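Quick log. Single chain, no ligands specified.
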Amino acid sequence: MTKPDQKAPMDLQEHIAILEERGLLTRIQVPIDKDSELHPLARWQFQGGLPDEQRRGFLFTDVTDAKGKKYDIPVAVGVLAASPAIYAAGLGVSESDIGDVWLRAMENPIEPVMIDDAPCHEVVITGDELRKEGCGLGSLPVPVSTPGFDSAPYFTATLCVTRDPENGIRNMGTYRAALKAEDRLGVRMASRLSGAGGYQHWLKYKEMGKPMPCAIVIGCAPAVLFTGPQKLPIDQDELGVAGGLMGKAIRITKCKTIDLEVPADAEIVIEGLIDPVLLEPEGPFGESHGHVALEDFNMSMQVTAITRKRKPVLVSIVSQVTPSESSVLKRVAYEPLFLNHLQKVLNVKGVKRVVMHEPLTNIRKVIFLQFAPDTPQSEIWRGLQGAATLQAQCGKIVIAVSDDIDARNADAVFWSMAYRANMIDDVHVTPYRSGGHGPKSGSKNAEGTLLIDATLKAPMPPLALPAEKYMTRARQIWEELQLPRLTPQSPWHGYSLGDWSNLWADFADKTTNGDWRENGAHTFSRRQGGMKPETPARDIENGVPEPQTPDPK
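-> predicted structure:
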């Protein structure tokens, strides 16, 4: 494999400077409310029908909140993967080299190097100062991702660093983290399927009866951040892979209050201890599967320190309904990895391209494979089965097409299905598939590899877009700023699908009014143990669904 000419940025701010130099960054220099305007504004370049090449990273330099508080820390959104070009800039390569760089990094990791005098420790907040209102987590301009539905501001572009207490192997995962108090976070480390690396570590700490150290990194070199969403083997150190992505060792440093190492050039680091017993209600929150994740009992993290650069930038990701920054972040890496698996590992003949369908379906569920003419049918079926089984959460529907079909055009795929497939001989359903990443409402039965009926069968959580009034307000700001012309595509705002309670509606209203601490106090009073993380709160507290509220307007 040829090593590309690579010049990866060493930290987030160097990356932002590169984006601005290339015309891939828009500075927003008017006051923007992080609680109700920031994410809806950034969301419009995905819901407004802009093609990849017109999408930009946004740097908000005049950030306020619902109470009128002004922040001296800028917020960056879309700077990781608003487009494949932005993602490629974060690795210092061309778009065509992204797949090769990932494969080389996983095969040839570079161990990190330790330093003492770290930029991420220029400011250190601990002790009583951390607990003062507006001095701890409240000092950071953490945006509300899905105004109208989210129960708190959330860190989204995270690297949650934990260590296996038995073998010492680090894990860095991208997990959401909700602001609960000045010194407390609600953290969701996925427990479905085999469980995220951080969750597996937590199980061991729970068995030991000790709190789990956790460091949440907010902003660092894109190559390091990119390892978080990637599904790497649980025993592979992501910092080594990140070094492989950059072609040089990552600088790391010791945390101030816990025994973990973090990227030394990080913008912000939240240090803390996760309770091994007591879980706290967390959510609702607009998830990357495109619906609002409702309240679950999840991990409660006591913050012991906030460290940061003297002049940091807080980075956030546009996720929820796809297309989004989150889906681009995964797609540009997943597609070449799936193709490599089919071509090099399974030796499937004739497969030329893997396309993961992005709009609304969030790349995981629907995969299209392009095959060369005259590929033997046995190879086509090996390819279909291989794509459906590589990762448990990917490939619920896999469709093979000839290479004259543009697999990015769903209309062309439907045309191919209508005229080139015999529904007696050319369709196969494999039962007992994991449900994977998706809302928990409705049926919990086992999945198959083909979805037939996509109609709504039971009440579901709201669509994970900001509520209509916030998107409407954001569009007004967008047009006042004379940003590119929008061509809205339905759906462009969130709305209730039946599974939404008065409590969660009140959480959302408080959050957009800047009163998220009241939500944190409410959920803190409800903490209890004796269950697995991600247990739905209403299953424990009510036993029956709560009454519904109308769609917020």
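The CA atoms of residues 28 and 481 lie 8 Å apart.
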